Prior knowledge:
The chain is 11% helix and 43% strand. The protein has helices at residues 127-133, 142-151; strands at residues 17-22, 25-29, 38-44, 49-55, 60-66, 69-75, 89-93, 98-101, 105-111, 115-121, 134-136. It has one domain: Sandwich (Jelly Rolls).
Amino acid sequence: MTTKTVGVTENVISKPEVLADDDRGVIEQLDNTNEGNSVLRITSKAGTVRANHYHQKDHHVCYLVSGQIRYVERPVGKDGVVDESIPLTEYTIKPGQLFYTAPMVAHAMEFTEDSEFLAITPRGGGEAEYENDVIRVTLIEPEEAAARAAKK
Length: 152
């Protein structure tokens, strides 16, 4: 016998959608409700870099499940230019820690170990909306991150 309760979500179980799969790792969208929020599961290999950008309006909180991240950030001026005379603020993120990225803060993640983290953002929408909000910058050179990982 099957019963149905009014107001209960019909899609209780869903499969994550792979948004990207490259040499750095995998990005999966865990939620598919399209209700304005986004939850991503991101795996990254040691010696790789993600982000190297800032968001004009979007912001996100991340939770490191496993691994380790060298996270760097630098504020962006009102004119949208990253002031390279301001030193980078650097953090070492460890499993079980949350970290927040505000709008107009240039940020980058260097994975010093194979890592898995969750990224949660209030921005819904697809790839086009994401690309319209993000401005690419270089805070961490991918080649330098790979060289540091190779020395370990």
